Amino acid sequence: xxxxxxxxxxxxxxxxxxxxxxxxxxxxxxxxxxxxxxxxxxxxxxxxxxxxxxxxxxxxxxxxxxxxxxxxxxxxxxxxxxxxxxxxxxxxxxxxxxxxxxxxxxxxxxxxxxxxxxxxxxxxxxxxxxxxxxxxxxxxxxxxxxxxxxxxxxxxxxxxxxxxxxxxxxxxxxxxxxxxxxxxxxxxxxxxxxxxxxxxxxxxxxxxxxxxxxxxxxxxxxxxxxxxxxxxxxxxxxxxxxxxxxxxxxxxxxxxxxxxxxxxxxxxxxxxxxxxxxxxxxxxxxxxxxxxxxxxxxxxxxxxxxxxxxxxxxxxxxxxxxxxxxxxxxxxxxxxxxxxxxxxxxxxxxxxxxxxxxxxxxxxxxxxxxxxxxxxxxxxxxxxxxxxxxxxxxxxxxxxxxxxxxxxxxxxxxxxxxxxxxxxxxxxxxxxxxxxxxxxxxxxxxxxxxxxxxxxxxx
Length: 459
Ligand SMILES: C[S@@+](CC[C@H](N)C(=O)[O-])C[C@H]1O[C@@H](n2cnc3c(N)ncnc32)[C@H](O)[C@@H]1O
What we know:
The protein is an alpha/beta fold and 459 residues long.
């Protein structure tokens, strides 16, 4: 595949995602700094700016794996593949934003079926090369036969069906970011991982995952849902459950590191390890969420027929995150790794970026948004907790209104419990307090507030 010179591509906008210059088609509007929701697909070469936070977290996780050596030792290389890379913004960000000291150990491969998108990747990556040139050679050792692809500035670019590309080598890191459901690619992804690997999966078929499309949920995920306040969490757990059982079929076991419902998509990040024993005990982490009359829920392994009626599953009932890793995903860290300094910005401006002080401010705000609430929730999301939607509290507690979330956390913490907001578009929180304690505290807070209001309104 030859590179298409820039002047053969329609000129578009130069945009900055993280620290990386990206080239957008001229029929794609300049993105806003707060893109939300599903993008209108406009064909090959289209970049969905609403996925930028997921790509930012991918940069942070990969940098963390290299720095803290939780996937490969410090003297080993890490092979990462974006199996459905489109115009390659994610792989270019890996190459450009992972700290320079780790770049020599990072081997990056990008694959897509779409030739136009790959040409766009090649051209963009040559026009705006990574800050630290990565010079490793094409790795013949990875392939049973000579690899068919092109090495450009440290990114090995392939044009294959993803299911072929995934099986061509043993990767320690695989990213699956399809349009819609990842189901067709899961078996190959698990098989394409090395003995210990990391798999990140995006699913935009949220109607199927939540159960609002029951037929698709049953067909794709073998699950049943209830569309209520727990539907977002269910969607995450249904996808984790399918990845866990797929891994088990290939004698592998998973350990979730991060799992989020991010507006219009679900994104899960799991360590995958070869282990027959682990694979055999996968059902220990699978079960159903049964709704109770008081508005709460409990997880069970084997629901009765009556419980199935008020249950969703089967889904993953184990921990959702890894505390050590997620607690390092702080605002300071995202700015350190992914925000350009003044020098990098003036270089970028010299290369065609139009970026004023407002752009800079909004871009920083978006980076911070991509990790908002994560480090604070890391501990609870990595162990047993109960999930609440703030809007459900008035009915549950019979108070008619909900307290302020921060005040509720302070009250729970003063009783010796932990509480944290969940990263979600809706106001969810998690706590390890027993349900009755949460209710007592809510009632006490609102009772006290209404007494105070009555007292202060007296003449
Ligand atoms: C959502 S886009 C990927 C976005 C990209 N990961 C990013 O962060 O910008 C999905 C891509 O999957 C590609 N695709 C769809 N089916 C494929 C297949 N069977 N093999 C390889 N690529 C495929 C499409 O061409 C498209 O570029």
